[in-house]
Each structure stands twice: as structure tokens, then as C-alpha cells.
Amino acid sequence: MPIEKIKRNYRKTKYILYKETLVDFKEHFWAFLGSFIGIGLMAYMQSKTLLHSDVVFLIGSFGASSVLVYGAIQSPLSQPRNLVGGHLVSAIVGVTVAKFAPDILWISAPLAVSFSIVLMQATKTLHPPGGATALIAIIGSPKITMLGYWYVLYPVLSGVLILLIVALIFNNMTANRSYPNHKKYHIIRKRITNKFRNSLS
């Protein structure tokens, strides 16, 4: 029944959040290091390519994504499909709405967020920071709004891939951390690692 499924998902989410927020200094260290390097790489690219006033790489939704992919790595909303898909879907929605209703903020802003939520749900890529990505396409600086659909590739896709690559590295540095929570990924990763070790020996 749908109600039982909702209750089961609620209990699972509650347990994950409880486990992820326990005071564990090792976990906090890796969460800090991963988020520091992920955001730091984007900030470095920003400083080397654009003026500080034109902050394109560092959109606010990446900060929210960092909380999930480095601090709540077992959450269903933190998984790679959700991280990448949620941002891309929302970015496309945001830019599309901005093109159809560019000067009517009270219509374009809620439309972008609402459509992005529905499409993320439909594509099973729900990622809460995606709503902010859609909104930034509407209310962002002139530099961002002028990008049009390039916004989807740069900064959204490029930034999301940086966050994901760093997460795949630093969220698997210890035996206690495992990301993503898809078992097939870790089976393939172990096979590749074993082949690489065998080739070196």
C-alpha cells in the first residue's frame, strides 16, 4: 500500500539522517575534506577564468549539493543519478522558463521551481538543490542569464561533475564510507582495482 511505502521510506530516511549526524570525527574529517576540495576546485577555476564579480562557476545550489554528497552520502537524494540528473533537469527547466517569461518574475520564478520539482520526480532524479539551480537561471546575475542554454553545460554540468568525481574519491577513502550506495558500482570498482594491482605486481 502507498501509505506503508511512505512510512517505510520515512523510517529509512530518519535512520540515515540519524546515522549521518552522529558525532564521528573521522566522518566529519572526510566530509570537510571532500567539500573543501570540491568547492575549492570550482573556486580555483573561477579565479583563473573570470573576474570575481562574474561568479559563474560558484552558483549557490552547489553549496547545498555539497552538504548532501559529502555529509549525507547514504541519502537517496545524494546519489549520482540525483546529483547530476537533478541539476541538469532543473537547469534546462530554468533556462526554458526564463526564455518564455523573462520579465515576469512572479510567474517565471515559481514556474521554474515547480516544473523542476515535477520533472525531477518524474525522472527519479529528485535533488533538493536542483530547485535553486532552476531559480538561479531566472534571478541570477546578467552574466548567468545571458548564458542561455550554455548555463546547463557551464557552470551546471561542469560543476556537478567536479562535485561527483571528488565525492567518488573521498567518500570511498575508508571502509566506513561507501558512495554511491549502488552495489554494482563497488563490485566493478573492486574488479578494476584488483586488475590494476595485479598488473603492477
How would you characterize this protein structure?
With 201 residues, the chain is mostly helical. 74% of the residues lie in helices and 0% in strands. The chain has helices at 2-20, 25-49, 60-71, 80-100, 105-122, 129-139, 142-145, 150-170, 183-200. α3 runs parallel beside α8.
Short description:
This protein is mainly α and 201 residues long.
Keywords:
201 residues; mainly alpha; 74% helix; globular
SSE diagram, text form:
Elements: H1 2-20, H2 25-49, H3 60-71, H4 80-100, H5 105-122, H6 129-139, H7 142-145, H8 150-170, H9 183-200
Helix pairs in contact: 2-3, 2-8, 3-6, 3-8, 4-5, 4-6, 4-8, 5-6
Quickly give the structural class. mainly alpha
Dominant shape: globular
Largest β-sheet summary: none
- First-residue to last-residue Cα separation: 54 Å
Strand content: under 5%
- Give Rg in angstroms: 19 Å
Taking all residues together, what is the mean pLDDT? 86
- Sequence of secondary-structure elements: HHHHHHHHH
Pick out the low-confidence regions. none
The total strand number stands at 0
Number of helices: 9
Percent of residues in helices comes to over 70%
